[in-house]
Amino acid sequence: MGNLPPEAGIRVPPKTLREFVQRLFVGGGMRDADALTMAELLVATDLRGVVSHGTWQTLGYVRMMREGRVNPQPEIQVVTSRGATRVYDGDGGMGHLPSIQAARFVATAAQEQGLAAATTGNHFHFGGAGKYSRMAAAEGCIGISVSSHRWPRQGMILNAANGASPMSIAFPARDQPPFVLDMATSFAGFSEQDFERAPFLYFKQLGLGAAAHVLGGILAGIWNADRIPPASQWESNQGGFFAAFAVDAFMDEEEFLTQMDRFVRECRAADPFPGHTEAELPGNVEARLEVEYARDGIPVSDAHREALETTATEVGVGSPLAEYEHTRFEESPTS
Description:
Elements: E1 9-12, H1 14-27, H2 32-47, H3 58-66, E2 77-82, E3 85-89, H4 96-113, E4 115-123, H5 130-137, E5 141-149, H6 157-161, E6 166-171, E7 179-184, H7 192-197, H8 199-218, E8 238-246, H9 253-268, H10 284-296, E9 298-301, H11 302-315
Helix pairs in contact: 1-2, 3-11, 4-5
């Protein structure tokens, strides 16, 4: 599932989609509160146009819980706390649940202490990284979120060290859209021809991926023996690292926001890449989509809709999506 607007589908109000997805997770065995957290985070991702990590994932998540591979009712615990740092144990459940707690903690603690960091481990997928870093940016902090997962050490070093770990860094702004880098650290498939033409691309990719794996993987304890089958019954193969830095611990916050607005504005006024009509920094397009989708509804492709309705059938929940057939579009809703 790519992250381009679908060419055909329906538009669904965020509230409707959120309530529907919450019911799907409850049907998969989750508590109401945890199901609401999942729905809120996945719909927030959809609103940014990051389809690959939004409600599209619901079918796979629910199936894994129903198959007994992911704990549907984990007991999240803070296992260590030292100063403005914490370590969270996800108890084999979805990674979104401890990760949102960690993201809230670092955003709050950084405002008080200047900076804060946390790791999460013993859980499954945490979704898109940007929703966690943006929480810190919304509180006047620079936010960082990174994740990684266990995978076999095989093949060439690019695969052995990288693993497509995601990372996000978010910076607050005032009037301009926030600058939010949100990406996988694996971004170019390997070929000898491409390597010979641009080896630096692969070396940088290798470095980013390895660093993300250490922060969001090794430091988060994903290789601890008790988190690996058969010692653990859960597929708790992922971890996360979260940090926040209060802007006003380093300079006057209003001055920073003024300079960020100037920086973003000047970059957006620059010449765009060939074949593009606009120059935008990371996160700018997503901010525009968030406003549009909140107003007009989230575009849901036919395949996305089928996945949600399949989940509904499997857990015995009614689907409201047919009510929005009148919003059907047959070309990109942002074109």
